[in-house]
Specification:
With 334 residues, this protein is mainly alpha-helical. It contains 16 helices and 2 strands.
C-alpha cells in the first residue's frame, strides 16, 4: 500500500485502487491509502505524462514534414529508416508520439518496442514487445488467450507458418505443447528461433531493394529462401522478392524475374495466398509490358487488378490501375 505522496512520484507507472481514508498510527487525521494492483504498461516519463494531459505541440513543422516524406517513400515501396537524435528533453519522444497518432498514419500498422536499462537480463526484450503489440497481447492475458491470439493471427496469414508457432510462443514465455520442441535443449531452441529469422532477412531485403542496393537485397533474399527450405509458403514470398529484384530498372533480367514470379505463383496459388498471387501477376504484367508482350501483360494486369479490388487492397489497386493505364498508352502508340 502507498500514500498519495508516493503515488504522485510514481503516477502513470502503477495501477492502483483507492482504499479510502485509513487511520495511520502517529498521524492526527486519516490518510487516503492506495493498493498497488500492478505495473502500468508505460516505460518512460513521457509515456507516463501522455497518460495525462499534454501541452500544445508547436514548432516542429519541419521535422513532421521530413517524417511525412519518409512515410510517403515507404508507402511507395521504398523502405525508410529515420533516426531522431537530440539532447535529452528536447522533445524526441513527443515528436514521435504526435506523428504516429496523427492523421498522417491512418491506415498504417504501427508497432512500438523499446529497451530499458533494467531489462538487460530479459532476452529479446524489444522483439518481445513488438510481438506483443502485433498480436495485440494485453497485460492481463493468460496463457490460453495469448496462444489463441498468436495462433489465429499467424494461421490467418499463411497456414504453412504453423512451424513458427513454437519459437514465437517460447519468446512470449508461453509453455509450448509440442513434443519435438520439448526435446530441444536451450541451445537448440535458440538456434531454431534464429532459423525462423527468415522473415527478418526478407524484410531487410525488401528495404534494400527500396533503397536501390540490389546486390545486398539479392543476398538477403537468398538467405531468406535458404532459412526455411521446408516451408513453401515462406519460399513463395522469398521468390516474389527475388522476382522484384531481377526486374528492377537498374538491373533488368527478364527471364530470371519471370522464373522467380512463376515459382512464387506455383507455391502461392494452391495455398490460397491471394495477396501474394496478385503481387506476382502485377510483377509479371509489368515485366511483360516492358519486353513488348502486350497480350500477356494485359492478362496478368487484369488478373492482379481484379484481385486487389476484391480484397479491397486500395494501395496496390492504384498501382495496378496505373500500370494498366501505361499498357493502354503503349497500345495507342503502336
Amino acid at each position: 500500500m502507498i500514500t498519495p505522496d508516493t503515488l504522485a512520484l510514481a503516477e502513470g507507472y502503477l495501477v492502483v485502487n483507492s482504499l479510502g481514508p485509513r487511520p495511520i498510527r502517529g498521524l492526527p487525521a486519516p490518510l487516503e491509502v492506495y493498493e498497488i494492483v500492478g505495473a502500468a504498461t508505460v516505460r518512460s516519463r513521457f509515456q507516463a505524462a501522455a497518460s495525462r494531459d499534454l501541452t500544445r505541440f508547436v514548432g516542429r513543422e519541419t521535422e513532421l514534414d521530413q517524417l511525412q516524406q519518409a512515410l510517403g517513400q515507404a508507402g511507395a515501396g521504398r523502405g525508410q529508416v529515420v533516426a531522431v537524435v537530440g539532447e535529452p528533453g528536447i522533445g524526441k519522444s513527443r515528436l514521435y508520439w504526435e506523428f504516429t497518432r496523427s492523421h498522417r498514419t491512418q491506415g498504417w500498422l504501427t508497432l512500438e518496442g523499446g529497451s530499458v536499462s533494467y531489462g538487460k537480463a530479459t532476452s529479446y526484450l524489444p522483439v518481445v514487445e513488438l510481438l506483443r503489440a502485433y498480436f495485440q497481447i494485453e497485460a492481463g492475458d493468460g496463457v490460453r488467450k495469448i496462444t489463441e491470439k498468436v495462433t489465429g493471427k499467424l494461421l490467418s496469414l499463411d497456414r504453412t507458418l504453423a512451424a513458427v508457432l513454437p519459437p514465437l510462443l517460447w519468446l512470449l514465455d508461453v509453455a509450448v505443447d509440442d513434443e519435438a520442441w520439448a526435446r530441444l535443449d536451450a541451445a537448440q531452441r535458440l538456434r531454431q528461433t534464429l532459423d525462423h529469422h527468415g522473415w527478418g532477412y526478407h524484410a531487410l531485403g525488401r528495404a534494400c531493394l527500396g533503397l536501390g542496393r540490389l546486390d545486398e537485397a539479392r543476398r538477403l533474399a537468398d538467405r531468406a529462401l535458404g532459412s526455411l527450405p521446408r516451408h513453401p509458403g515462406f519460399a513463395a514470398h522469398a521468390r516474389h522478392l527475388l522476382g522484384d529484384i531481377a526486374t528492377h530498372p537498374d538491373q533488368f533480367e527478364a527471364e530470371r524475374g519471370k522464373a522467380h514470379y512463376r515459382e512464387a505463383l506455383a507455391l502461392a496459388e494452391p495455398r490460397g495466398m491471394r495477396p501474394l498471387v496478385a503481387h506476382c501477376h502485377l510483377g509479371l504484367g509489368k515485366l511483360s509490358r516492358r519486353v513488348g508482350k502486350g497480350e500477356q501483360a494485359h492478362g496478368h494486369l487484369a488478373t492482379g487488378t481484379t484481385m486487389y479490388r476484391e480484397m479491397d487492397m486500395r494501395f496496390w489497386l492504384e498501382k495496378a490501375e496505373a500500370e494498366m493505364r501505361r499498357w493502354h498508352e503503349g497500345c495507342g502508340r503502336e
